[in-house]
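Sample intake sheet
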Amino acid sequence: MIEIRNVSIIREGIYILKGVSLSIKKGEFVAIVGPNGAGKTTLLDVITGFIKPTEGDVVIKNKRLDKKIYTGENIGYVFQEEYSRSNIPLTVEDVVSIGGYKRGSSFFHLKGNPGLIDKALEEVGISNLKHRSVSNLSGGERRKVSIARELSRQVDALLLDEVLANLDPPAQIDINGLIQRLHEELGITIVFVTHLLHYLPERVERIVGLKNGEVLFDKPRNKITGRMLTELYGCDGNKLSKYVGTFRV
């Protein structure tokens, strides 16, 4: 479904991504892990078409992304930092309805299907928050609103960038469980970016280690070793456990 072929991103002579190749099948649950600055978010931006590769190709559902504007219709993206301001004058319904806007050649237009909004709210379990102001929600509830927004677009894949960051443990566990349930019930492709390995969803099938813009390893979950992780993060096992938590295959 998603093909990244020898992709490089070069900025001011520096490689942000270097020769990255990655294939993700329909319905897979893949985790991308690595230290800060490894290029994880940049890779997601490439998949969505927000950033065009300096070198290489991106193919989504057998369609090559070229220099034209990519609509991103099939790919949902939940950013690491959303709703950074607490005084957002929007309701939950307003935010989720934004998922119904589709990019045209030079403007945005409303897709127009209110039923999809209610369905998405139900899928993430926040129907009761429909008319609440987003500014009055907890961090975990806001994450659910973001996920519902993307589901309302009926996407084929969901990219999640550090969605557990800055949440307390109960909220992390709650969002983790929601993501796994969506994968199980909807069969949606999920790409899960994180450095919190102790909260890596159990349904993750493959783990891709990204370091300095390059793929260090791409292995099934049960083939990941402690040595791979210490090389990825550049520290010994004791320091690693303090940084990323205890990882169990």
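Comment: The first strand starts at residue 2 and ends at 11. The first helix runs from residue 40 to 48.
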